[in-house]
Amino acid sequence: MLCRSADDIPPGPGLVYEPKWDGFRCIVFRTGDSIHLESRNSLPLQRYFPELLAPLRAALPEQAVVDGEIVIAGPHGLDFDALQLRLHPAESRVRMLAAESPATFIAFDLLAMGDEDLRGEPLAERTARLHAELTPNPQVALTPQTIDSAEAASWFDRYEGAGCDGVVAKPLDSTYRSGDRGWIKVKHLRTVDAVVGGYRRDLKVEAVASLLLGLYDTEGVLHHVGHTASFSAAERRDLLVRLRPLEGGTSFGAGRTPGGPSRWTRGRETDWVAVRPELVCEVAFDHLQGNRFRHASRFLRWRPDKAAADCGYDQLLPPHPFDLEAILAPAG
Fold first, then answer.
1. Where in the chain are the domains?
2. What is the third-level CATH fold of 1-20+146-188?
3. Which residues have a catalytic role annotated?
4. What pTM value is reported for the model?
5. Residue 8 DSSP symbol
6. Does domain 22-142 fall into CATH 3.30.470.30?
7. Per residue in 87-130, pLDDT tens?
8. Which among 77, 128, 151, 322 could disulfide-bond with 146, CB atoms 3.0 to 4.6 Å apart, if both were Cys?
9. Separation CA 329–CA 331 (nearest Å)
10. Residue 295 CA: distances (Å) to CA of 108, 285, 298, 322
11. Would you call the peptide bond into 50 cis, given omega within 30 degrees of 0 as the criterion?
12. How confident is the model at residue 36 (pLDDT cuts 50, 70, 90)?
């Protein structure tokens, strides 16, 4: 079951609201002592999260299928980088990371119990069965839920500091339909003023493919934080004319730089052109991963009124620091 995006939290009644977890979506299949973890793309995950197998055996009935999210809580909330580090081919490294930063499985739906296929039952019934059948422990939790849209709105603001992505709204009478976007997600969308420190060329035409964005740290060093490419064909050509007089200099030279060729780029051109850090633009982004944007940001406007040196990381501080355990404790 998938989500469609919305700009605002939809009002009830008839809806249940949950935090939107920033982790790996995971379906857990348990049959006796056998535990199989599967991603939304049907890839097995159990070798990457061995520390979850025993807690899931303790929490789930003998035969069940549960939908949920795997998360790792770090000192500053949910740590998506730590999740990605687990996807490593060396078993020894995976086990070392599992000991250093154990994962948690957060359950939010019960799809099967014994020989019963529950996907045709309404969500309200599946949720009641999940709460009755699952026994939470320190590494297996039930997601918090509310039918109060005002409380969900408060979660949207308060839980951002713990790394939650936003809020998900689900119809209480809905059945579970794989691949159907019957749930509604409302994600945080924040804005920041960033410095243009370089660009990537369009290899097919004389134009800019994307702008490379940076922010200054407290030492005055410019670090690459992401890119924006939300321009029309005409705007891309105009950008090249605008940027060429600024080419040269070090821009990101002393800080984190845009990535070069890697196993992810599969031979694609990744060269970039540095420009003097003089242009400032405002962009919108949905999530910060470490000290960079996880996804491409959306260009909003130029900021000729703002000095590049004023574009720092201080813009990105979470507004409401919050303890993840305090979110899970009421549900557990």
1. 1-20+146-188, 22-142, 190-316
2. Dna Ligase; domain 1 (3.30.1490)
3. 20
4. 0.75
5. S
6. yes
7. 999 999 999 999 999 999 999 999 999 999 999 999 999 999 99
8. 151
9. 5
10. 26, 7, 9, 24
11. no
12. very high
